[in-house]
């Protein structure tokens, strides 16, 4: 079975940093784009960033450009999201998902709370 | 950025009923549209992609149609496990990929 397991969420003060990880198993990681999607409490889904199979292409939603960095370690089947200069409106559950155009499957998510 | 608009926001239906959810794009997305189901406390699950292709393991009671700017997700006979929030997502013009705001199916 394909499994995606996020970790690294928590409570952070505005302006702080956090690094999320997504451990992937059950698939050939190097064959797939990977994506981060977030969901603010009680709100809808927002695509955040994605990365090509070899890491050579990365894309971001405008609201996180210059603050977030997506990366991957193909040797460890791992996806990461480095989040700097965090703001209150970054508070959300962050999901990693396989895929470039459509996203399937998704991990269970990790909650990031930005608050003083 | 393409704006996706879903209607209605909430739909109250009874088990066994047929239901149709709508999704409209602010400009054509061809058939590059997906539908997801999200149950409380769970991650979204892909139901439909390419506007009408069911993802593996998705029951046949789920069907998608449409192209261009108008799309529908139909559930032919609602089961208790289908009460959830449904999101559409376009992947024709990216970045960014954009989702609709969701339609919540609740029990009447």
Reconstruct the topology from this structure.
The complex is a heterodimer of chains A (116) and B (108).
Chain A (H helix, E strand, L loop, with lengths): L2 E5 L2 E3 L5 E8 L8 E6 L5 E7 L6 E3 L7 E6 L4 E6 L8 E7 L11 E5 L2
Parallel strand pairs in A: 2-10
Antiparallel strand pairs in A: 1-3, 3-8, 4-5, 4-9, 5-6, 7-8, 9-10
Chain B lengths: L3 E4 L2 E4 L5 E7 L7 E6 L6 E5 L3 E2 L7 E6 L2 E6 L9 E6 L7 E2 L3 E5 L1
Parallel strand pairs in B: 2-11
Antiparallel strand pairs in B: 1-3, 3-8, 4-5, 4-9, 5-6, 7-8, 9-10, 9-11
What does the model show?
The complex is a heterodimer of chains A (116) and B (108). Helix content of chain A is 0%, strand content 48%. With 116 residues, chain A is an all-beta fold. In chain A, the strands form 2 sheets. Chain A has a 6-stranded mixed beta sheet, with no helix packed on it. A 4-stranded antiparallel beta sheet of chain A has the order 1-3-8-7, with no helix packed on it. The relative contact order of chain A is 0.32. In chain B, the strands form 2 sheets. In chain B, strands 2, 4, 5, 6, 9, 10 and 11 form a 7-stranded mixed beta sheet that branches. By secondary structure, chain B is an all-beta fold. Chain B has no helices and 11 strands. Chain B has strands at residues 4-7, 10-13, 19-25, 33-38, 45-49, 53-54, 62-67, 70-75, 85-90, 98-99, 103-107. Chains A and B meet through strand 5 of A and strand 5 and strand 10 of B.
- Major beta sheet summary of chain B: 7 strands, mixed
What is the molecular shape of chain A?
globular
Instruction: Report the β-strand fraction of chain B as a percent range.
Output: over 45%
What is the total tally of β strands of chain B?
A: 11
Query: What is the H/E order of chain A?
Result: EEEEEEEEEE
Largest beta sheet: strand ordering of chain A = 2-10-9-4-5-6
* Proportion of residues in β-strands of chain A: over 45%
Distance between the termini of chain B: 36 Å
| Average pLDDT for all residues of chain B | 97
Radius of gyration of chain A: 13 Å
Biggest sheet record of chain A: 6 strands, mixed
Give helix % range of chain A.
under 10%
Number of distinct helices of chain A: 0
Mean pLDDT of chain A: 97
Share of helix of chain B, binned? under 10%
Q: Unreliable runs of chain A, pLDDT <50, ≥5 residues?
A: none
């Amino acid at each position: 079975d394909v499994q995606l397991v996020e970790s690294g969420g928590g409570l952070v003060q505005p302006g702080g940093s956090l690094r999320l990880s997504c451990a992937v198993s059950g698939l050939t990681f190097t064959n797939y784009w990977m994506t981060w999607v977030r969901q603010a409490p009680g709100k809808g889904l927002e695509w955040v960033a994605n990365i090509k199979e070899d890491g050579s292409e990365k894309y971001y939603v405008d609201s996180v450009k210059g603050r977030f960095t997506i990366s991957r370690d193909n040797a460890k089947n791992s996806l990461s999201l480095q989040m700097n200069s965090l703001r209150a409106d970054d508070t959300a559950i962050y999901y990693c998902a396989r895929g470039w155009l459509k996203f399937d499957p998704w991990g269970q998510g990790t909650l990031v709370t930005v608050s003083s | 950025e393409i704006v996706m608009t879903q209607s209605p926001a909430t739909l109250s239906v009874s088990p066994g009923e047929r239901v149709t959810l709508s999704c409209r794009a602010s400009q054509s997305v061809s058939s590059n549209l997906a539908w997801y189901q999200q149950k409380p406390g769970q991650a979204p699950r892909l139901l439909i992609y390419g506007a009408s292709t069911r993802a593996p393991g998705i029951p046949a009671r789920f069907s998608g149609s449409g192209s261009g700017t108008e799309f529908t997700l139909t559930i032919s006979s609602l089961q208790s496990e289908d009460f959830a929030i449904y999101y559409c997502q376009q992947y024709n013009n990216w970045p960014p990929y954009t989702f609709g705001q969701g339609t919540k199916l609740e029990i009447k």
